[in-house]
Design goal:
335 residues, 0% strand
């Protein structure tokens, strides 16, 4: 058999690329194994497995799914798909100068960002968004990083506001205090926008670190309309998502939708905060329990419902990530 010598450079390059990929994977694995975040997340996961078995039993947890019909589960998955689309639309609107006319690749980025965020501990999955935006749209890190942080703060605000609404009936305060707090919650975004503008004007007269901070602030909304649109996208997305989770918790526990809304909201609050277990294990369940237990439910059934909701979140993440990444692959390659 004769081998064309001209083929050797191509073969050598192919072997070299394989070796580089293998080295990259090995280095990534070593970095993960050396990270305290990984081991803390693993400990939380193992602790959750033991806690559920010791106090309720995994068999009883699995039996809870008998209350959910397949048709209802399909509807819940469809609404989760709507939530994915809403998140992508928020990014598309916010990064419009970079992403105009290229929604499909951004949908793929949104899905992958959500996937790694749900699985990796301590919010380390957030780093995938600036990396993917740089790769796909050439968005500078100094723009995508601050913008993502700002949007996460918006998520936190909306979740806190929705949690406040759902927990109002449990608060031992008079109507005057409740109305005052509700007004403060509603006014908070407007105050934040005014404060942001004041800081921006102050930094315009400075140099050095002030100039660098001002450059980072160019990623933030520079007019009320952009701010309001981002806020509306955020509210609509969270209402859809929490409605699905509330319905599932209500089906698992027998609680009212308003009580289940509290558990769904506090569970999602745990996923926005910096402390986050491996795949959210332990921290997500603790968040759901914090919202359910004040309504008088026993800890065993509440823990089982929290675990089942988390299993739905992870299951829908895997299913929708697989479907949407395959559906958007051709468009990304063309781009």
């Amino acid at each position: 058999m004769r081998i064309n010598a001209a083929g050797f450079p191509g073969i050598a390059t192919w072997v070299f690329n394989i070796e580089n990929t293998r080295l990259l994977h090995n280095r990534t694995l070593l970095l993960v194994l050396k990270s305290w975040k990984f081991w803390l997340g693993t400990a939380l996961l193992l602790g959750l497995v033991w806690l559920v078995e010791a106090h309720y039993g995994w068999a009883n947890v699995a039996e809870s799914w008998q209350t959910i019909e397949p048709r209802q589960l399909i509807i819940a998955l469809a609404l989760m798909l709507v939530s994915y689309l809403l998140r992508a639309l928020r990014f598309y609107d916010f990064f419009g100068s970079y992403t105009k006319g290229q929604f499909t690749p951004l949908l793929r980025i949104t899905v992958l960002h959500n996937f790694f965020n749900n699985l990796l501990p301590m919010r380390s999955g957030e780093a995938t968004f600036p990396l993917l935006m740089k790769q796909q749209y050439q968005v500078p890190y100094r723009h995508s990083g601050p913008a993502l942080l700002w949007l996460r703060l918006l998520d936190l605000y909306v979740l806190l506001a929705l949690a406040f609404i759902s927990l109002q009936s449990l608060m031992p305060w008079g109507e005057e205090i409740r109305y005052a707090l509700a007004g403060a919650v509603l006014a908070a975004p407007l105050l934040a926008l005014v404060l942001q503008e004041m800081v921006r004007k102050h930094l315009q007269t400075g140099q050095g670190w002030k100039a660098k901070v001002l450059e980072l602030m160019t990623a933030l909304p520079d007019n009320p309309f952009t701010f309001i649109r981002a806020l509306l996208w955020t509210i609509i997305n969270w209402v859809v998502k929490l409605a699905v989770f509330s319905w599932l918790l209500s089906a698992f526990t027998g609680l009212t939708l308003s009580a289940s809304w509290s558990g769904a909201t506090t569970g999602e609050l745990s996923s926005v905060l910096p402390i986050h277990g491996l795949a959210g294990a332990g921290t997500y369940e603790a968040g759901v329990l914090a919202g359910l237990l004040p309504w008088g439910i026993e800890s065993g059934p509440a823990l089982a419902a929290a675990v089942n909701l988390h299993l739905f979140v992870l299951g829908s993440t895997f299913i929708l990530t697989g479907i949407l990444t395959l559906a958007t692959q051709r468009s990304v390659i063309k781009h």
